[in-house]
Amino acid sequence: MNDIQRALDSGQGIIRIPAGEYRVDKPLRIRSNTSLVLDDNAIVIAEDGCMARRGDFLLSNADIDTGNENITVMSGVWDGNFRGNPKSAMYDENGYSGAMLNFVNVKNLRLSNMTLRNAAGYFSRFARLSGFVIEDISFAHDTNIANNDGVHLAGFCENGAIRRVRCLTYGTTRDDLVALNADDCVTRTENRDTFRGPIRNVLVEDVSSERCHCLVRLLSVTAEISDVTIRNLRGGCRSNAVNMDAARYCRAPIVALDDPAYTRGVGNIRNVTIEGMTVTQAHDNPLVLAETNAAGFVIRGFERVEGSEGETLLLRNLSPSRIQLRGLSEAQLAQLLADSKLARYAITHHAGTCDLDVTTDYHDTLILREGGFALFRLDPA
Q1: Is the pLDDT of residue 257 over 80?
Q2: What's the pTM?
Q3: CA pair distance 352, 204, nearest whole angstrom
């Protein structure tokens, strides 16, 4: 048993780890009513081969089945050593998920001022959380690899905040920097032992990356994502700044496009507001991709960095919806009307700007190729 686990098992309420390198040969598990505080220069590394099976994580709560409460982890560098602990095959029922930090069934969790690096899969994943703060978290990777989410919330997470998350290395994270995945393929190795369920009352703010895959994903097919505020998204992406595609294009899709239940749209997103986006796109993908039904989904203050590739907005596969776009230029409006397929719309002209109100049917598509906007809103028709 390693020294850190001995300390975690000692029953002390506060455990302090001084500067130094600590190689652990077994997964670490933290109990209720425990604060683990590392020096900023303490480095915890998973030894080769110590993460190989389902349920192995560099750090997790001790009692996933019965639940834990009042857990705090602060500071330090946490290294998953992905080369020595490779993720198992995609549907290996007993394989290693690649997740480095895993907290499930916890009340009052706080993770703060941590650097997470070299995860084999998700840097951190969470489910069944109530009352949580995840803040000042940095991500780094020696070699960017697929399915490498930063902060990944699965079902039944509520009443929490994710603040000041950033990537230290170019191309990190290779998947979603922040994922709010109320639905997902839970038979995949990455997601096994998480759940499909609601995500409610969450604040996400100050999210930045030089060139991640996706800044924020909102994944809902039937499970609810509601009362979420997202503020200040900055940086570059290769896929999307905001993704709401219901995982249609993932290797393990959860929407069968030929299933009659889904032929008129999917999703259960309510009262989600994004305030302040300054983003750039490196590939031919839309910065905002919306293929999920929503009520009260709002983006305010969208700024597209000059030189970005791909569209600003792409909306399709929605049930009949009402769309508002405010603060378009005349050129943007002309392009949008030329390239989109819209059944009904109304235009209001102001001094130098235009407002667009659209009522769609399922077969409509809205494409805004260039520039920013003052406000976008999506509601059911």
Answers
A1: no
A2: 0.96
A3: 33
